[in-house]
Amino acid sequence: MPAAIHLYRRKAMYYWRRRLPNALASWFHRRHLFLSLQTPDPNFARRLVVLLDAKLEEVVTAFEHSEMHLTPPQVDDLLRDVVTKHLNKLERLSAAAKSFAGFDAAQAERDDRRAAWAYRLLHTQGSNAVVRPSDEIQMSAEGLTAADIAAVQDHLAMLRVNDLVPTRHGILQNLLAANGAPANASNLAMAQDVYFRGMWMALAQSERRYGGKIVEAEEFVDRILKDRVQPAYQLAARPLDIVQPAYVPEPNDSADCVQEQDAAAVDDRFKAMADLLVRKRSKAERWSAKSKQQATQIFDLLARFMKEERGIENMSAVRQKDLAALANFLETEIYKHHGKGKNDKDRSIAEMRIIALSKPEELRGLEPGTLNRHLTFIDQLFDLAEAEGVELDSKLKITKLRVINNTDERERDERLKLPLPKIKNLFNQPPFVNCAGWNRLSEEGAPNESLVFHGALYFVPMLMFYGGGRREEYCGLMTGDVIETNGEHPYLHIAKNKFRRIKNAQSKRNIVIHPELIRLGFLKYVSLIRSLGYELVFPDLFSPTTKSPLGNRYYKLFKPVLIAAGITEEGLGSHALRHAFGAILKKRDVREEHRADLLGHSGKSETSERYCEATEIEAMHKIVCTMPIVTGHLVAHPINLFHWVREKKTAPFSHPSRVKRAEAIR
How far is 579 from 572, CA to CA, in rounded Å? Predict the structure, then answer.
């Protein structure tokens, strides 16, 4: 029974449910609207229902008065937006293309004419357009050759192969939203037609780009000439009796004050503010070397885009539409893997667009997570600028540009779980049983032998499965972090150290060492590493010639082992062992607070986070001992180190850079 009109209660939460009028139901293809109000409070839910009912009545009224359809002025605005956007884009691309050696203007103009005809056919026939005999006659009459006509057919096929036809709904919806129109089926169809027409009109202006036919050229020059002579004309026409002598102010302290103010003005150029932010974050040790590199890269891209595309060099001049243009560029117009090439940092925005256009559609635009990370860095930059006294536009809302994750999957289902049989099979692979040699760890050794090397590849997978820590937390362990003399059960102290950082504050914790790891010689291994004078528990991962995280080297060794064990699905990497640890403990009915302490997660509430203490080592030991034993078949071999670790030599995989090699030769 409803708690109030249109209000229903399900599992302690309130929902709003309304039956749609027949006309609206046909538009939305559903009979009812059912919406969670996200509240268990009945009074608050009733107030929300009143607002939702009123909003629905507005929509129904607008629909009944045909306000749901595009008006002629709105259609004109849509067309103007499409033509303007693509004219600007085509002119930028043509300007960039002209800078390359071997540029052929005649060929570029032919390509544009062919593309224009493709969109002309799409406008006249719809998304299933083809070149009809009547179209061939008209093309020939306008000077197109048989090769041009074939190219038009190929262009139509290319657009369909790359899923550019029909146009993606997101583009059309954004176009409608920018002009205040609802994205219903009728308006989307109209927007599609306008989009094809606008593309045709923009591409048809090829003579403007390559033939020098600029219609506003004479008017533009005339206006400049008039502006040049206007001041002199006005001065001559001014009556002599009102011309006053120039005022020369007497020297005083005010001029000095103005100069001092100018000297104290905040330098709000992008690079200056970005350098300041990087220095502050580096000094506070809030950014790792990788974060610093990522931030610098996106700040450089931000400054380049604002200067080349928007004509802006100061942060105080940025408006919301400028940031929206940048977000759109990153989301749809840049190569997905931009930044990985050694020359990417020197490319202009136009060159970035050309590179992206040469790639398939699925490789254009950044992933949502990457785009949101870039926007987070930009948000931090503008926060700093505001704190430093830069007068920013009060309407800037960078967070509104973030991409929303529309996936229907629950968070716990987004990453695949590693089944227990596959985990057991993983520990049957050569590195744990019998490998072919120190440089062939993932290959099976000679029959009737049991060659095992103790190091990161041997112990880290066990540590992750039996302790739940992160890859980098284990790979960057120091010998001092292995605590054996503070109680009955030895444990690992996870904290920031000179070799690696930790993810967040709650990552600082203790992880008890599972008895199975002790049986297989982990403590004996650590003792031997200590006696050799090493600081790192796994020195076999360290190279003096790279700054890459130690976990990268570990995963390079571990990946062939995963593949050999049949663990090839996307998302089932080494991190899946940590997820398996959490999933198994949940099935064992271990309390959420205890699981959070082991995994290094924060509590979900004030009670579980502030008013409690970390799980004691004794209790933690009992919890991890509930984990299934997947290494019971392994033999506890005498500790066998890699020869370069035992002899304290540089790792064989360590290769100095070209610069260092050149310096060594000198």
Answer: 10
